Amino acid sequence: MAGILSMILAGGEGTRLAPLTSVRAKPAVPFGGNYRIIDFVLNNFVNSDLLQIFVLTQFKSHSLNKHMSRRWQISGLTNRFIDSIPAQMQMGKHWYQGTADAIYQNVSLIEGLDPEIVCVFGGDHIYKMDVRQMIDFHRSHDNAKLTIAAIPVPVDQADQFGIIEIDEHNRMIGFQEKPKENAKTIPGRPGYVLASMGNYVFDSSTLVSSLKEDAEDIDSLHDFGHNIIPKLQPSGDVYVYDFSTNHIRGEPDGTNGYWRDVGTIDSLYEANMDLLEITPPIDLYNKHWPMRSYHPAVPPAKFVHDLEDRMGHAISSIVSAGSIVSGSTVHHSILGYNTHIHSHTYIDDSVLMGNTDVGRNCRIRNAIIDKDVTIAPGTIIGEDADFDRSRFHISPNGTIVIPKGARVGFE
After folding, report:
1. Strand 346-348 versus strand 35-36 pairing type
2. CA-to-CA distance for 340 and 335, rounded, in angstroms?
3. Which DSSP string corresponds to 111-127?
4. In the chain, where are the structural domains located?
5. Cα 244-245-250 angle, rounded to 5 deg
6. pLDDT at residue 1 above 50?
7. In Å, what is the CA distance from 251 to each residue of 58, 290, 346?
8. Under the phi-then-psi rule, with left for phi > 0, alpha for psi from -120 to 50, and beta for the rest, what region is 374?
9. Which is nearest to 115 in space by CA: 205, 214, 41?
10. If one looks up domain 4-274 in CATH, what number appears?
11. pLDDT tens for each residue of 67-119
């Protein structure tokens, strides 16, 4: 037996993150200056010493596959691998029809390795998790066929998640998939529901048999939340793991339980801003839980000019390697690799994803600027909502998004 196999669902189209996903899959979207979203789940498995991993890709996968090949390759280690698996259409000439179908179309990979346990995790969330603690919880219940990681969320977000009810033994006794109304709240906490994180630990034989049965159901959506979980729940063999109990060595007090579904522009922006807190709720600097990613061969960041009206400095910000802050001010912002901010420019509350050149005398606020963007001198973004709306995509909370490769302010 292979023991524990991990399968990461990384084929999401990410339509709510447009235009950032116009050229890439959601898990490949840059995050936090140095990372891609996919790096967080991969670091969770690698730091948990779980090194048999298939990453299932689908839509616009080139950027993701390139990132995987540059950083997430294991070679020369027996029975250890991180393999990117494109949609191969082995079960018919169609894309994955749902999360369960994605695993079903690759069921031969499971059967070939014959593991005891299969972890099925999403590839598009920002969090830290020692996955072995969840596996230990699963194994502590002799009859467990499936364990689902869960976290409390406000009841007004219930329509975005699978909502769970549990008994005093952490056994699932009820499940609603993205209910639009009458979501079951947590006893004693009427403002919150218990939400599935989309992270599952399966008994391998249960997973395979459930997938094969589901594949034969022509009325199924072939989705874990809509189909697989509701069919398994009545058996009494589905348990719920409290993510807030997951402990990682070296984490600051109060940071356990941080998890963000960065499925919208606003949630992605807010998760980036979380990194700028004095004690961020997710710590990128914990030496006991290294955050690996691909790092290009670029020089260190540089800050130049020290004149009264022309000083290069960054305050409450993250500045990645290769960046130059030249006689300008960067405040409460994130600069990705190779970002050049020219003199007399002011950047505030913004995320610049990298390879960006911002000309002189610009003012930019409340923006996400994708890679390879050039901004002309004198450009102002974030001060005139109507003018910005005529040029750019703006989120419901007012975050301005400039797509990859744009040239802004040039005639």
Report:
1. unpaired
2. 9
3. HHH--SEEEEEESSEEE
4. 4-274, 302-408
5. 95
6. no
7. 34, 12, 33
8. beta
9. 205
10. 3.90.550.10
11. 998 989 887 677 899 998 887 656 555 667 789 999 999 999 999 999 999 99
CATH 2.40.50.140 fits 302-408, yes or no: no
299-322 pLDDT tens trace: 999 999 999 889 999 999 999 999
pLDDT band at residue 60 using 50, 70 and 90 as cut-offs: confident
**Minimal CA–CA distance to 363: which of 352, 377, 347?**
347
- Report helix, strand or coil for 170: coil
Question: Using one digit for the tens of pLDDT, what is the confidence trace for 390-408?
Answer: 999 999 999 999 999 999 9
Per-residue H/E/C for 71-106? HCCCCCCCCCEEEEECCCCCCCCCCCCCHHHHHHCC
Q: Are 321 and 300 in contact (CB under 8 A)?
A: yes
Mean pLDDT, rounded, of the chain: 92
Single-letter amino acid, residue 78: T
Tell me if 102 sits within 8 A of 21, measured CB to CB.
no
**Structure tokens, 162:** 């699978």
Q: How far is CA 348 from CA 76, 155, 280, 345, 383, in A?
A: 46, 32, 18, 10, 11
- Dihedral sign computed on CA atoms, order 164, 156, 12, 213: positive
> 214 and 100 in contact (C-beta within 8 Å)?
yes
Q: What are phi and psi of 372, to 5 degrees?
A: 65, 35
Helix, strand, coil share of the chain (percent; to 5) = 25, 30, 45
